[in-house]
Write a structure and sequence with these properties.
Helix 7 runs antiparallel to helix 8. This protein has ten helices and no strands. It is an all-alpha fold.
Length: about 200
Amino acid sequence: MPLSDPVTTVLLCAAAYLGGSVLFALPVCKLWGLPDPRAQGSGNPGATNVYRTGGWRPAAMTLALDAAKGWLPVWLAYSAGLSVLAQAMVALFAVTGHMVPAFYRFKGGKGVATALGAGFALAPITTAVMAAIWLLILWRWRISALASVVAVVSGPLISAFIEPENLPLFGLLALLVVVRHRNNLIRLAQGREIGL
């Protein structure tokens, strides 16, 4: 599928990457008087690690903001009439921005919340099913990394049945998120992964 508007696509991809590069866990922790999450717990600047140090309120704020920076650029791409391929590219740039942020020496988070927001903008049904799987796994085992990996790996299969036009996007997101969780997977295999 060709790009419907290459110039707008490039601009939105750039904006998505820069927006994704804002690690909201850091200003949220500062607002709540919490320590830098990169120096606490798992060292990940994400909602789960914020929860470990500050509880559910700052964690929910972090989750909402990180999801919003994935949702907004994809929604703008949709509103601009860009193709599904272009919207998927914008989504990937937003998630990549969170993982390798330009503003923090390219050391970012896992990208799960940002992928969640982008997914809800582009493929809400698939993403809702993935979110339900994440919640179920988290409730049962209390390990966010396990819940995240299971949810994103299930994404391509769910998309293939429900929203097949987005299968490539969910395949790439699964690859990115699993690679970012490689150390978590090693700790899981060794029984050393940090739970909630």
